[in-house]
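The passage that follows is intended for readers who have already worked through the single-chain material. We present the inputs for a multi-component assembly, then the predicted structure in tokenized form, and finally a short commentary. You are encouraged to pause after the input and sketch how you expect the pieces to fit together before reading on.
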Amino acid sequence: KNQVEQSPQSLIILEGKNCTLQCNYTVSPFSNLRWYKQDTGRGPVSLTIMTFSENTKSNGRYTATLDADTKQSSLHITASQLSDSASYICVGLSGGSYIPTFGRGTSLIVHP
Amino acid sequence: NAGVTQTPKFRVLKTGQSMTLLCAQDMNHEYMYWYRQDPGMGLRLIHYSVGEGTTAKGEVPDGYNVSRLKKQNFLLGLESAAPSQTSVYFCASRLGLAGNIGELFFGEGSRLTVL
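Having made your guess, compare it with the prediction:
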């Protein structure tokens, strides 16, 4: 059974600080892994996609990594801003599958 | 660009009442999904559709029915609402197996309260 586990469940940091969110996945056969950002009261929006051959990918202040050997991904946020306060959801997709596998998300709160 | 539109955005029901949530997408996507989101539980799949006229059960289908008579619309019905169905419902769509490596596009959510 495909599974995605995220940690921590919640995180509070001060504005300007960096943070790293973790995702452990068991998705087979592996196609890709996405990180979504969900602002309060809104639907999730894709931040980045990681495929098997990619180790690191950046999207502005967001940097995602993927270690296919350990089946771990991380999302690093640099110089956090108040607008980064949101839930971050890790989603794995297996090849040929109709159904993505969702993690439960990490709730990030950035305080001024 | 409308993307994925859900109606209504808010609804309060009494136990036993019925209602339908409508999801419409204008991206010509093949796949559509209905999820519910509850605190601490993440997004859980209710039903999904991989094409016009097809539907399938997800992780938590009990108490819900769906229909996809047109490619752009995916309806979620509650025949007899229960307090346990109080939740935020999200519709999502996806191009299909052949394209976009599985990015899901979500609506803004429908908040349902059952008293």
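Commentary: The mean pLDDT of chain B is 94. The interface with chain A takes residues 4, 31, 40-45, 48, 50, 56, 58, 90, 92, 97, 101-104, 106-109 of chain B (CB under 8 Å). How closely did your sketch match?
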